[in-house]
Amino acid sequence: MVVGAFPMAKLFYLGIRQVSKPLANRIKEAARRSEFFKTYICLPPAQLYHWAEMRTKMRIMGFHVEAIKPLNEAAAAELGANLLGEAIIFACAGSCLLLEFWRQQSLKHRKEVEREASLLSLRADVDRLEQVLDELQVQVQAAVTKSALEELRAELRAELQEFRTQICEEERQEPEPQPSEGPE
To answer: Is 134 a residue whose pLDDT tops 50?
Structure first.
């Protein structure tokens, strides 16, 4: 995945560079034409860049130079315009990266909110199911007592029926009282 992402990043950077290039070229032309722009915007960064570059090169080669000769005005204006153009391209690319980062963060936050909402919904469903389960358990316990009552009622009916049959049998077995023969 990382290997595939690198060419895309390079392509993205080249696209930004191509889009920003005309803007940078217009700024370079303005720097060449405008004396104020050239003097105060382009020359100071160009001279600073030249000074830092030459000082670094001299130290790498082992020389300790006290003073570095500044660039002439035309070369400094060209270098300053190029630096400004590159800074604009870099700023465009950086802003695109910041926008992409913000979009990714927004997407991540939205997914997190959706996940939290889903989790809350699931918790509410579980609570509701627990409440229904408790109600069903109460009903089952009540049904058990009802069934016990029904069994008791059936037993009582059976005993009552037995008692009735016993009474009926006893009545049948008892001889009927005969009228006593008395004086006639």
So the answer is: yes
